[in-house]
Amino acid sequence: MRNISNQQNTEFSAVVNETMSGIETIVIADRHALTRAGIVFALKQLEKYEIVAETADLATTMQQMEINLPSILLFEPGIFGEKPMDTTLELTRMSPSTKQIAILDERDRCCELTRNVPLSGGLMKSDGLEIVREIIQKVSVGRSAFSDAYFAASNSTKPCASLTDRERQIMGAILSGDTSRDISGHLGISVKTVENHRTNLMRKLGVHSVAKLSQWARGNQCIHGAGEG
Questions:
Q1: How far apart are CA 66 and CA 27, in angstroms?
Q2: Count of the separate structural domains present in the chain
Q3: Distance in angstroms (rounded) separating the CA atoms of residues 57 and 60
Q4: Cα four-point dihedral sign 94, 100, 103, 108
Q5: What would the pLDDT profile of 157-193 be if each residue is shown by its tens digit?
Q6: Residue 226 is inside which H or E element, if any?
Q7: Does some domain include residue 65?
Q8: Domain containing 37 — which CATH number?
Q9: How many CB atoms lie within 10 A of CB 196?
């Protein structure tokens, strides 16, 4: 009989326990006790959610993620240092089913901290308890959810803010699979004008293919309407 690794045992147990109980398990990773306490309070009356760990540093977060394989990780990007993308991608490999929600402070460098991170949701620390509950509930059922404050803060500081409304419109159409001719017909402009807008927006964002454009836009919540529930 072949041996089963500790990691496989842990993952199997986490899945079985969650399936049997119907409980969404949550890890909160934030250096500030008040933020963690606010999230705990927000979820206190919701029976579906169980906070299995609260962490305040990278090492403990990684350890608790490996042990618990939670349904949701709420994390302050700063806890992962200057390159949170590397850590969150490692966490995604460790627990592919875990949905990640970023919690930003107004002073955070929104774009730099979350660039290309595969987020399911985003909150600001200033968001009220009802908003916190709403975002977590939406994410738990597989929806992307970003608070209005998070969306406004990230849009005000990241490179996609440099795009014109038309460039954003065309970017959304490109990412929906429309050709330049399709976009031309929808918007009533020439194919040449569409191509010019396309060239300009990709130059501004520093990407050179539709695949890279899609990755960048989703990582930065830069797609038109990304902040809508």
A1: 11
A2: 2
A3: 6
A4: positive
A5: 555 666 777 888 888 888 878 899 999 998 899 999 9
A6: none
A7: yes
A8: 3.40.50.2300
A9: 13
Q: Which residue bears the tokens 């040449």?
A: 192
Please state, as a whole number, how many other Cβ atoms lie within 10 Å of the Cβ of residue 191: 14
Write down the number of H helices and E strands in the chain: 11, 6
Query: What CA–CA distance (Å, rounded) separates 221 from 2?
Result: 44
Is 118 among the domain residues?
yes
Q: How far apart are the first and last CA of the chain?
A: 49
For residues 77 and 168, state if they share a domain: no
Residue whose pair of structure tokens reads 């409980």 in the numeric block: 23
- The answer on 202 and 106 residing in a single domain is no
Q: What per-residue string of b and e applies to 48-72 under the rule 16 or more CB within 10 Å gives b?
A: ebbbbbbbeeeeebbebbeebbbbb
Strand 72-75 to strand 24-29: parallel, antiparallel, or no bridges (unpaired)? parallel
Q: What is the pLDDT of residue 20?
A: 40
Q: Residue 34 is encoded by which pair of tokens?
A: 């008040």
Alpha carbons 117 and 96: distance in angstroms, whole number: 14
Residue pLDDT, tens place only, 82-106 = 667 778 788 888 889 999 999 988 7
Which amino acid is residue 29, in one-letter code?
Answer: A
Together in a domain, 64 and 114: yes
> Whole-prediction pTM value?
0.60
> What's the CATH number where 184 sits?
1.10.10.10
Residue with tokens 């490109």: 174
Taking 60 as the threshold, does the pLDDT of residue 126 lie above it? yes
- Domain residues for the domain of 107 are 6-157
Instruction: State residue 151's pLDDT score.
Output: 75
